[in-house]
């Protein structure tokens, strides 16, 4: 595969890099630590937390971005899998209920750390053996971000399915029957009638799960992803100032929790307004 | 008077209904098939990869790790429960400062990851070695085991304080007033009237908290405590055998499931007077 890349490929590459740099620019602007209005940019100069080559501010800022990115990427995947599993759990088919029950039992019962290791190393071994059966023998490493994201979404979805299941049970049967009476198909009933109510009922539980997810992202530092805890750990190893940097890590997680609880409050007010007539 | 002379002959039995092969049934069979295949694959992996030497070498270590995990969790739960009592009362206190302090404590420990708290205590407090030596506490904060225990106690105390507070506040006011009208003192009211009702409410959250702690206890492996996860990582680093993680998964799942069923039994037993 050496020939010159064709025109479309170049165009796509250009598009992606343009999108990437635009995203990087936006992230840089709103970066609360090392952006133009960042805390470290203003108050961290000539300290250990300065941005740039002299301090650890920019490293920690990138760690914060990774933590938020992992959490934000996990959320939709986890919600989707959780919704499907919840549908399976309340299905009339016995085998389907059993299969989804096994899923939630396993992933709610195992420590998140162990799930992460099992998926990280398991995927590595599985891909390796698959490739070696095709005669391709080289050591491969799978992306820690993807592995962490998959593991966290699996754990999130197992808990999410329980939350959604209890929300499903809170919706009276008459709502489905009303959908039938209006001549809506099953899928339309689900999207137009059930889902809006489901989200409102499940929101407090899902908000709780989001808080847990934010904290669970700290585990990805163990498989080598450069999140907040990893970056502060590197800083500690170099500067030997463990208390400062780990307190900073805790403060960042707390700040994330506070920001999310403000956001969740806003969403709850908004959905609550939709319900009042 | 008319009466029936002839009986209607017996009808043939209704035809056996064939359950239609719906989409959900097909999916169900497919998913169960995947689980069964996965189970067979894991089992065959364990059987073909069975190694007597490894088993003899790492089996006892796993059991020791299991014991470490159980000790760690039980000590943390008990001491956390003791610590959570004053915290819960502080949280309900009318004094702004006391309740503010308890709120801050609970918010900190529930808002940050256990791993970060563990690092803060183990590595962070390790930086204050001269001061700790001066007050004679260095032997405590030097050991990873004590640090793990300490951070777990602080962490679970925050969660248990919230459980306790919620449960105590769920007891209706009329119960306090009823006890007061019977002339019971505040202490007796709390011990004999409020607490028994609160603990029944708190039973399920307490079970969940213990399960969370069992799962969370795996992180002490990162600061070199050889609990179940630590032994697993040790065995994996020596053998590069994927089975090590599967054994750990079996142990953890067995622990959590046993506790869950025990708790379901306890709850059914303790609330049998509330069922109608």
UniProtKB/TrEMBL annotation, chain A:
Residues 64-263 form the ABC transmembrane type-1 domain. GO terms for cellular component: ATP-binding cassette (ABC) transporter complex. It is found in: Cell inner membrane; Cell membrane. Pfam families: BPD_transp_1 (PF00528). One of its GO terms (molecular function) is transmembrane transporter activity. It is a multi-pass membrane protein. The chain crosses the membrane at residues 22-43, 63-87, 113-136, 142-168, 189-213, 243-267. Signal peptide: none annotated. Keywords: Cell inner membrane, Cell membrane, Membrane, Transmembrane, Transmembrane helix, Transport. PANTHER family: ARGININE ABC TRANSPORTER PERMEASE PROTEIN ARTQ, CATIONIC AMINO ACID TRANSPORTER, MEMBRANE COMPONENT. Belongs to the binding-protein-dependent transport system permease family. HisMQ subfamily. This is Amino acid ABC transporter membrane protein 1 (PAAT family).
Automatic annotation (TrEMBL), chain B:
It is a multi-pass membrane protein. Its main location: membrane. GO terms for biological process: amino acid transport. Keywords: Cell inner membrane, Cell membrane, Membrane, Transmembrane, Transmembrane helix, Transport. PROSITE patterns: ABC_TM1. The chain crosses the membrane at residues 26-47, 67-90, 102-125, 137-158, 210-226, 246-266. Residues 66-263 form the ABC transmembrane type-1 domain. Gene3D superfamilies: MetI-like (1.10.3720.10). Belongs to the binding-protein-dependent transport system permease family. HisMQ subfamily. This is Amino acid ABC transporter membrane protein 2 (PAAT family). It comes from Neorhizobium alkalisoli.
């Amino acid at each position: 595969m050496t020939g010159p890349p064709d025109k479309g490929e170049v165009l796509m590459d250009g598009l992606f890099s343009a999108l990437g740099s635009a995203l990087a620019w936006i992230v840089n602007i709103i970066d609360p630590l090392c952006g133009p209005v960042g805390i470290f940019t203003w108050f961290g100069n000539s300290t250990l937390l300065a941005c740039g080559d002299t301090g650890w501010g920019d490293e920690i800022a990138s760690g914060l971005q990774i933590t938020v990115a992992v959490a934000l990427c996990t959320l939709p995947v986890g919600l989707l899998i959780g919704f499907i599993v919840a549908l399976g759990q309340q299905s009339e088919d016995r085998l389907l209920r059993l299969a989804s029950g096994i899923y939630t039992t396993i992933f709610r019962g195992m420590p998140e750390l162990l799930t992460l290791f099992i998926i990280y190393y398991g995927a590595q071994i599985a891909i390796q053996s698959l490739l070696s059966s095709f005669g391709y023998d080289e050591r491969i490493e799978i992306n820690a971000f993807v592995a962490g994201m998959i593991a966290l979404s699996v754990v999130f979805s197992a808990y999410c399915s329980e939350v959604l299941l209890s929300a499903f049970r809170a919706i009276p049967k008459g709502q489905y029957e009303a959908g039938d009476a209006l001549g809506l198909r099953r899928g339309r009933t689900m999207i137009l009638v059930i889902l809006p109510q489901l989200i409102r009922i499940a929101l407090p539980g899902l908000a709780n799960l989001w808080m847990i997810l934010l904290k669970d992202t700290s585990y990805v530092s163990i498989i080598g992803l450069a999140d907040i805890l990893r970056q502060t750990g590197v800083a500690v190893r170099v500067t030997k100032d463990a208390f400062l940097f780990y307190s900073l890590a805790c403060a960042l997680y707390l700040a994330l929790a506070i920001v999310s609880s403000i956001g969740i409050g806003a969403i709850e007010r908004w959905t609550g307004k939709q319900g009042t007539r | 008077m008319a009466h029936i002379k002839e009986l209607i002959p017996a009808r043939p039995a209704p035809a056996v209904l064939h359950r239609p092969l719906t989409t959900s049934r097909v999916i169900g069979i497919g998913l169960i098939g995947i689980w069964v295949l996965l189970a067979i694959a894991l089992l065959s992996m364990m059987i073909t990869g069975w190694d007597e030497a490894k088993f003899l070498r790492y089996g006892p270590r796993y059991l020791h790790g299991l014991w470490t995990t159980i000790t760690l969790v039980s000590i943390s739960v008990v001491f956390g429960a003791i610590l959570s009592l004053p915290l819960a009362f502080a949280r309900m206190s009318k004094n702004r400062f006391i309740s503010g302090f308890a709120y801050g404590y609970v918010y900190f420990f529930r808002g940050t990851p256990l791993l970060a708290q563990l690092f803060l205590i183990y590595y962070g407090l390790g930086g204050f070695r001269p001061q700790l030596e001066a007050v004679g506490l260095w032997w405590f904060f030097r050991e990873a085991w004590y640090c793990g225990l300490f951070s777990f106690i602080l962490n679970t105390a925050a969660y248990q304080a919230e459980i306790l507070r919620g449960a105590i506040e769920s007891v209706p006011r009329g119960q306090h007033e009823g006890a007061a009208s019977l002339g019971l003192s505040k202490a007796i009211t709390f011990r004999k009237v409020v607490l028994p009702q609160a603990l029944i409410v708190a039973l399920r959250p307490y079970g969940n908290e213990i399960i969370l702690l069992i799962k969370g206890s795996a992180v002490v492996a990162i600061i070199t405590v050889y609990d179940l996860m630590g032994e697993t990582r040790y065995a994996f680093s020596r053998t590069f055998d994927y089975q090590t993680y599967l054994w750990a998964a079996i142990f953890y799942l067995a622990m959590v499931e046993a506790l869950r069923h025990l708790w379901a039994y306890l709850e059914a037993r303790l609330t049998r007077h509330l069922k109608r």
